[in-house]
Amino acid sequence: MADIPAGATLAVGGFGLCGIPSTLISALLDQGADRLSVVSNNCGVDDWGLGLLLSAGRIAKITSSYVGENKEFARQYLAGELEVELLPQGTLAESLRAGGLGIPAYYTPAGVGTPIAEGKETRVIDGREYLLEPAITADFALVRAAKGDRHGNLVFHASARNFNPVAAMAGRVTVAEVEELVEPGELDPDEVHLPGVFVQRVVLVPEDQRDKRIERRTVTEKKTEQTEQTEQTENGAA
Predict the structure, then answer these.
(1) H-run or E-run covering 129
(2) How confident is the model over 14-59, as pLDDT tens digits?
(3) Which CATH number is associated with domain 9-105+135-209?
(4) Residues annotated as region Disordered (predicted)?
């Protein structure tokens, strides 16, 4: 992390607070790099994830598809302190994937006829209009995986997979934090979600930093015997 300079472009994995590289983000906060351009699905919340870098004034530009959970984000944008580029979520994912595969640009129908299309080339193919979207690459990528080996082969857990693979592919130097580090050969090849060719550095997350915040908790009120009787009576009356 020490070699990430001011003004660097970062591709950061995660979706909301799920699968975010929180340890690497905290390390970057301590490292001090500023004027960062960040490409990520969202910008965390005010006190967690990328929101920590944002609150510290370290992010100059964010390319994202959803920004609705961060009040400081809104404040900085409205005050002209933060440059924002919004993309459809599928476009963001595909642009990162294209960047990782060396595809310079691709056509998509998403965004045609909207402000997203301003200044971009369009083309009609088989009677339908498409928008030419450029690929996205980054100087560095920060991602999180459930398991990895020393060659950089990564395994993600369930929905924490989200934007992590495509973010990792788009980085010229990709740093992965893993919850479990195994020796080469211990991972079943069929288990690997992202091959190590896309990963240059692997960091084991300390046990005391493996907390996983819940962005929004929704619970169902426990039914009592009285409420169940009331519901049965109402259903019977209906």
Answers:
(1) strand 128-134
(2) 998 999 999 999 999 999 999 999 999 999 888 899 999 999 999 9
(3) 3.40.1080.10
(4) 210-238
Q: How far is CA 131 from the centre of its chain?
A: 23
Give the closest residue to 178 by CA, choosing from 140, 210, 214, 141. Answer: 210
Distance CA 203, CA 143 (A): 10
The reported pTM is 0.89
Residue ranges covered by each domain of the chain: 9-105+135-209
**Helix%, strand%, coil% for the chain, nearest 5:** 30, 30, 40
Q: At a CB cut-off of 8 Å and minimum separation 6, what does 216 contact? A: none
Element (H, E) at 30: helix 22-31
Q: Computed over its alpha carbons, how large is the radius of gyration of the chain?
A: 21
Which pLDDT tens digit goes with each residue over 60-119?
A: 999 999 987 789 999 999 999 999 999 999 999 999 999 999 999 999 999 999 999 999
Q: Would you say how long the chain is, in residues?
A: 238
